[in-house]
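Thread: Modeling a multi-component assembly for a lab meeting

Hi all, long-time lurker, first post. My supervisor asked me to bring a structural picture of a complex we are working on to next week's group meeting, and I have zero experience with this. I have the sequence lines for every component (572 residues in total). Could someone generate the structure of the whole assembly? Inputs are pasted exactly as I received them:
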Amino acid sequence: MRDLHLQQLRLNQTQRVRLQTALQKLQDVSPSSAAATVAVADNIPVNHEDGVLKGHGTSELDGQVVATLCGVVERVNKLVYVRTLRARYKPEIGDIIVGRVIEVATKHWRLEINFSQDAVLMLSSMNLPDGIQRRRTATDELNMRSIFEENDVICAEVRGFQHDGSLHLQARSLKYGKLKSGQLLTVPPYLIKRRKQHFHHLENYGVDLILGCNGFIWIGEHVETSNGVMEGDGGNKVEESNESSSHSVPLGEKGQRLMSLETRQHICQIANAVRVLSTLGFSLTTEGILEAAKASISLGINTKDMLGAEFHVQTAEREVGRRMSLLRKKG
Amino acid sequence: MEYVKLSGFRLDGRRPTEMRHIHAEVGAVANADGSASFEMGNTKVIAAVYGPKEVENKGQQIGNKALVRCEYSMANFSTGDRARRPKGDRRSTELSLVIRQTMEACILTHLMPRSQIDIYVQVLQADGGTRSACINAATLALADAGIPMCDLVTSCAAGYLNSTPLLDLNYLEDSAGGPDVTVGLLSKLDKVTLLQMDAKLPLDIFENVMQLAIEGCKAIANLIRQVLLENTKKLEYLRGT
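Re: Modeling a multi-component assembly
Sure thing. I ran the full set together rather than chain by chain. Output:
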């Protein structure tokens, strides 16, 4: 938790006390495994007879295993490593990430993804908009800017590291690609857990939520990804949808569809729920985000007031209740 | 002037081997990857770390390790007289270099090839010992940013006035013109990474003064460890499972 953000909340005396009690309770109910935290240069106790594999965040000094990072010691069989908390994103193959294009270069785009280097998305490792599988020609190269431009927010998957150490991405499915009409939020990556599902369609809100493993969260208007386009008959489909939309929804200046006010409000509501949870340092899951959004409705708190002190305190208290009940179920 | 009174106390009421009150905090800058504030008595410093990130100037990129950059600045309001300080004057360039070299010695740069780490330290209140305070703040900020380091570098100064070794000089004692020894120490490895003195001292006295500064470094290292450990624990239990 960044205390800084909480200081800026201007809690009154009662709220401060309530928040402190809630946080104290969270500390009390947290499992004892959380006690295995280390700071830089702490010794990590290991059993040398069993043999030790030193993983990330460890080094050896005088025959002892020493941490080189602040974090939590994790042990898998013989492997001992330190899981960091507040650190930059560490990619793993298959991660779903959200990133921002910073450069259109020859045959590839460079993306900022909160990693120690920029990621590379090759033109050859993404589906073309027409959906046809073929060699990329020089014309395709010239038309790269029509696919992604600088400052576009896109969603992709980590393909792997190249032998020169650069990180490559791929976007070989319709669910990946450019993200339009929505909000991008950045949170510390440790708050997002790797799961089976990172794309969520929140049906009640008509909103898409993408929890990128790199800590970039996209909240945008729901887009239908029809499987038909993948087969290659995308051309007519797109025209159809354009026609139908021109009847129902007013068009903006550049001929884009305008989002309804309701959807905009829902996007802000979900975004503020994410902001509150990340300020408090709670892990971000769809359930948690939805619960926070729902609570704001049931408590009659306006979207703009969700970032106020009262809602933060209430969210913290709700989290205490949730974790208590989880413990009770287990015990 | 009498810097150590007959009663054995210094001008600000400390004993010769007593440090000023220290307060360290992690998380002072919202948008930085890691940040910290560090106070020693009236000296107050904040540090922010950005990175490891893509190298901004491709010409500076190093193929097998990270590039470490450091910028030291002093706020206009940090000293008694409000002076406009031009960026990049001799003093701040020298201090930037000192801090950069000290931090580079403890960062495991080979783990982050082709990337860059920016360290920004700013003095908010200057009351002697800014050099040490900056290094301590930078260490905290780097640890907060999750950058791998072989050990925590901590720094402390000691001086020699009225034929007494004094720990952690304040501005008044610093400006007395006596010797001022600043030591940077890797406390676990027991290695000195920084040693500065711009005066003359007999060797036997120098050793005493340096030993005193090393003791101070160790005390600070303990405190910084506590702060980091507490912060990590808090982040972990808040995150939950």
